[in-house]
Amino acid sequence: MLLMTTTPLPSAEIARLIDHTLLKPEATVADVEALVAEAVDLGTYSVCVSPSMLPVAIPEGSGLKVAAVCGFPSGKHTSAIKAAEAAESVARGADEIDMVIDVGAAKAGSFDAVEADIAAVRRAVPAPTVLKVIIEAAALTDDEIVGACRAAVAAGADFVKTSTGFHPAGGASVHAVELMARTVEGRLGVKASGGVRTIEDARAHVAAGATRLGVSGSAALLGGGASAGASSPAGSSY
């Protein structure tokens, strides 16, 4: 009888799933420059920054993408403001937008409003811009997670994303990722973010269905050691 085994993804493949993230309010231009250099060195997919830090100088030939957040971190901005913020970020060089839904609307079961909010941003930043939708899964029930994910699918998003990393309810969980992946059924990607700090965390979330990871301490996660994560400009709770 043959035993089926699953080989864990090597660090280099995990790196290619990472949005190397710096969203601390006190971040400086020098911090972002260090973030980019570290991302290139680690081989991450992208860097993720606040809109005010754009444009970001990316080394030619590196292939590194740039993501910017929108309506961050509360999601309590109007749809018009989110759409304008997203459009400005793209005009200033962002390849991807990570928007926060109105979590209160999801809590209230107003998924038509959630869909309309996402759709407004989608219209402002059409393909090929990648749109990721942060649903703040730790603050939602399972039914609310499903409803928010369905709204993202209906609105034409490219990803659903667990968390901002700033909500007191917490960040990514394997359960939430599994539920989100099951709901979107491969039509959207799934990004796990918030508290993904070790290679074991990363592999567990990928096994649950994550196709992208939001990580601030990428050097530590990928094997640079805890001190590398602590000294990195990205080192935060994200």
List keywords for this structure.
238 residues; alpha/beta; TIM Barrel; eight-stranded parallel β-barrel; disordered N terminus; disordered C terminus
Explain this structure to me?
The protein has 238 residues and is α/β, with parallel strands linked by helices. The protein has one domain (12-223): TIM Barrel (Alpha-Beta Barrel). Helix content is 42%, strand content 16%. The chain has 10 helices and 8 strands. The chain has helices spanning 11-15, 29-42, 79-91, 103-107, 111-124, 142-155, 174-184, 199-208, 218-224, 226-231; strands spanning 18-22, 46-49, 65-70, 96-100, 130-134, 159-161, 189-193, 212-215. It has an 8-stranded parallel barrel, surrounded by 6 helices. Helix 8 (199-208) links the parallel strand 7 (189-193) and strand 8 (212-215). Helix 3 runs parallel beside helix 5 and helix 5 packs parallel to helix 6 (142-155). Residues 1-5 and 225-237 have low confidence and may be disordered.
